[in-house]
Inverse folding.
């Protein structure tokens, strides 16, 4: 059985020492998040994740969800009780507006709590995760009347949310969608169509489910400019807030899938179901993107979360499994063999994951803080800068953290040898669960295109330039520091590669967009490496600042410095390959006719 | 449902045009392998794989194997009939010695047939694959009496084989193994112990199962020098060849695993089972390694096979799935959207897999031919050179082709978006099946250590120098060729990186073996890239020679040249990163204490 211990200390180190959470005290909600409160919240979330959710992870995978003849769906044994604890603990709405019953705390904290819960049980954590996304879309775009009806119940977690985009013939290209919305005299719409891959579409955890559904109003334009967003409750709320009749929406079947078995992935049939418009007609994609951006950050966090829990189990196994002797002579001579952690290739594996996780957690924290600034600051300029950062980093976090999350889960599984392939140790489940994060909320190739095709050039490249300026300014300020040299020197080279790649796109992809498309995935990973490298510099600097207070000796901060060096020496050099690939251009990629494949 | 079409044309192109199979006509068995015969054999193998094995692949995954209360195991529906066809077709023994009923054809052909079968149904193909490995070990090391009893039945496939190495506490480090062998007055041994992860350990396909079992004879030395190899039949053969009584060996349970569900992976209990020594006492590992080397090549082929079938399905889906429009303007204006193959990132994905597959198939073919030379040539020097090649390339083929096979299956799955995550299309099964190949027959980290720690320096580096000389000689000979320049120039740079890395090990790892260990995996992949790059040069040259005969225009050979360029521009540059990682050394990898993980 896999185990999990939430990295509360690392989260606190990031908040307190790396990103100086206290400097954001003037933002609404941050005053309530004193260091003690934050520590208490993270401690409680850790406990819930470790003690309640972790033991249910294997059960959820093995048992999966069951659809009954009446279309109802039962979640795995134990999920319902755990969900009740989640609601009772107020976890769903910790960052939701107080007016709807939320605690209004920074979303940065919600991100951290989500990491813990996803590490413990990703399939379970998706239920509140989707609710949070739906809540955000409704809060941003819904009418006051809709908000009053739905938000309090969603913020409390009594009702859960879903997002309904995909149809059998359309996923990425939503312009093709066919689900219809017929206007009714009372201002509502009758929604008809089939949606697939709907996570948490039907289940027994909550008394009601609030579906956000993309559909085309009769007579609306073709393509993406004729799509509207609707709220379609499973059960109609009555005026007094109690539940009334059932709406004409039902789960047609459950998808048989590779992983996240504990989450019900549904085919949803809308058979003239009643819905209400969210925001303006034909502006549904705009409203949905509010939800998508939150969701993409959330999915990036899932990647990190699985990488973290897979790492912890691999590290524990590596210290326990005895096999062979160290290349430089036996290290544990009292044992029949050395634990496999003595082997350099094994340590390389573990450090690769560790170096990713700790920087990824920093990147999420930094960006989530910017998200809080973007939503809460009273200063227009600050808000805009923070929003730029969010827009630029969201596809990077989604794409790079989920690609890394999967690759790292696979590497952690490899540490177990044959034992990693059998279900017992839970490692193969992490791999299967991590895989979906690369696919949903926009497959990672789409994230790369979003970054290269839209985010880079947006507003004359303002966000990109701000990011480059921040990193290069940071490097420049430390140019005289011997202590920081091992970190900023490699970062500087990597940033140079990123700038060269950006320049190459400017010069070669304006007229030939295929050159951008063919290099997009490499660019996203190059960007991710630079961002993670920058995080390692920030972490190393904070660790160096802590060391003297620990009389120069602290296993924890010393490990940060070693891991930072490992990242610089072993992981960051990959930027050169990404640059070479980008600069190769699209010629050989595009030359063969389609039939040659 | 996934489909499969065996790449017979590509196999014939490799044999006839790239590696000039006809030049090996003087080797025993090769005379029988005329071009027509080879084409007929591959055609029949293709048909069997496509029509019989492919339809059983999903069934095998879904249904898996079932162990009954009496310890017997049933394979998935249809496997038994398919296995009968396999035996009736004489497929198991096509390369086995004629004296035991085999056809004595080159093992190069067996490798190709195995690729087809593994693409179609890896879990099924493992049954004959293991039998072939066990046959090889028994043929090389068994007494005449044992060979006479067992080989004819194994060569025909009437009986299947297994290899029993792993125990719960020992896999990589066989020195720890505990299974005991007690000598009996009649020269046999009583074997007692538990073996785990035994593929094809018990099943209903064949009337008997021949277990090759590693065990320690009572009183034998500790460690690897006290291990012997035994043959332990499930049912005792009588002197007339008919089956007698049951031996004391039984399947205790089936492992619940990530993939290859159609293959029965057993815990095998030996409870005083009667076995006979193969080869010398205490020299069991030596004998087992005959089997292991064959098996490692076979596992490398599995990696290629899954990459190939995953590619074929992804390419078909990419040409069929309509979503979005080409970045450079719609290409299929009569359709509601373009097929996704127009998108550069999608083509990059497909070409990455294709460029791997075609070169990997060449590498396997080249090395299998050397294997035939090593076993069949009458010339000592030729045999030695071929054996050197095999020894050097076996870990590269196992490690690189299975890492690539898995990564490529994942990329092919990604082409399907959400549809790749659900079971229906079969893509997620390819991923789960491909994963085991990185683990079994020596996890890939062990392959890397074998390459760096044993194969490089063996016989004063003779095999390595021969490989370097062959590649650099090839490059030099083409230095004046404009046509070959786009291929040999990048290969020359990559070879330079490999030579620098080898030199770095010589200078830095002799006294500090950790420097070798920390760089081993990168070295293996660097080596693999150079080997695949060399294969692309050979392929490109052969394609160029074919083009004039096709009046300069041949979609097939033109595609070879484009794919070769893609490999050189997009995949080979990674050698620089591997070199940088190797040269970073082991310092940051080894510095932290074990507790820091």
């Amino acid at each position: 059985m896999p185990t999990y211990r939430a990295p509360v200390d690392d989260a606190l180190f990031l908040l307190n020492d790396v990103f100086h959470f206290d400097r954001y005290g003037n933002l609404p909600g941050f005053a309530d998040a004193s260091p003690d409160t934050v520590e208490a919240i993270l401690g409680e979330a850790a406990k819930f994740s470790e003690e309640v959710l972790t033991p249910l992870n294997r059960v959820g995978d093995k048992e999966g969800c069951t659809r009954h003849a009446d279309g109802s769906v039962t979640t795995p044994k134990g999920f319902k009780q755990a969900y009740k604890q989640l609601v009772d603990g107020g976890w769903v709405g910790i960052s939701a507006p107080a007016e709807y019953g939320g605690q209004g705390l920074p979303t940065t904290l919600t991100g951290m709590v989500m990491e813990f819960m996803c590490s413990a049980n990703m399939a379970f954590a998706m239920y509140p995760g989707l609710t949070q996304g739906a809540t955000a879309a409704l809060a941003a775009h819904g009418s006051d009347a809709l908000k009053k009806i739905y938000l309090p119940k969603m913020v409390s977690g009594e009702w859960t949310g879903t997002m309904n985009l995909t149809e059998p013939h359309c996923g990425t290209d939503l312009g093709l969608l066919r689900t219809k919305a017929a206007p009714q005299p009372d201002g509502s719409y009758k929604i008809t169509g089939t949606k697939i891959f709907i996570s948490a579409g039907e289940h027994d955890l909550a008394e009601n489910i609030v579906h956000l559904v993309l559909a085309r109003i009769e007579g609306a334009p073709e393509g993406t400019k004729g799509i509207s967003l609707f709220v379609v409750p499973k059960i109609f709320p009555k005026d007094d807030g109690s539940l009334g009749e059932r709406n004409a929406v039902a789960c047609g079947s459950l998808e048989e899938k590779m992983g996240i078995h504990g989450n019900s992935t549904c085919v949803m049939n809308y058979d003239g179901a009643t819905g209400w418009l969210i925001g303006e007609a034909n502006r549904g994609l705009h409203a949905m993107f509010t939800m998508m951006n939150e969701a993409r950050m959330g999915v990036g966090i899932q990647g990190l979360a699985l990488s973290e829990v897979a790492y912890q189990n691999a590290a524990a196994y590596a210290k326990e499994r005895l096999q062979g002797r160290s290349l430089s002579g036996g290290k544990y001579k009292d044992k029949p063999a050395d634990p496999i952690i003595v082997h350099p290739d094994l340590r390389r594996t573990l450090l690769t994951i560790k170096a990713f996780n700790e920087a990824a957690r920093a990147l999420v924290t930094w960006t989530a803080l910017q998200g809080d600034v973007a939503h809460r600051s009273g200063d227009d300029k600050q808000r805009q800068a923070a929003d730029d950062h969010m827009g630029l980093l969201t596809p990077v976090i989604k794409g790079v953290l989920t690609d890394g999350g999967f690759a790292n889960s696979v590497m952690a599984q490899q540490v177990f040898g044959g034992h990693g392939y059998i279900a017992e140790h839970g490692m193969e489940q992490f791999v299967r669960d991590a895989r979906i994060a690369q696919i949903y909320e926009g497959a990672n190739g789409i994230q790369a295109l979003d970054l290269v095709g839209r985010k880079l050039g947006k507003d004359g490249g303002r966000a990109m330039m701000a990011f480059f300026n921040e990193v290069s300014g940071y490097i420049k300020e430390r140019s005289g520091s011997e202590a920081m040299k091992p970190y900023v020197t490699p970062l500087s080279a990597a940033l140079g590669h990123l700038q060269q790649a950006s320049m190459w796109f400017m010069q070669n992809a304006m007229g030939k967009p295929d050159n951008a498309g063919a290099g997009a995935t490499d660019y996203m990973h190059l960007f991710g490496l630079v961002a993670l490298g920058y995080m390692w510099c920030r972490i190393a600097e904070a660790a160096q600042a802590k060391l003297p207070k620990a009389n120069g000796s602290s296993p924890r901060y010393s490990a940060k410095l070693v891991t930072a060096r490992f990242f610089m020496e072993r992981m960051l050099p990959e930027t050169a390959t990404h640059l070479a690939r980008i600069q190769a251009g699209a010629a050989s990629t595009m030359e063969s006719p389609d039939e040659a494949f």
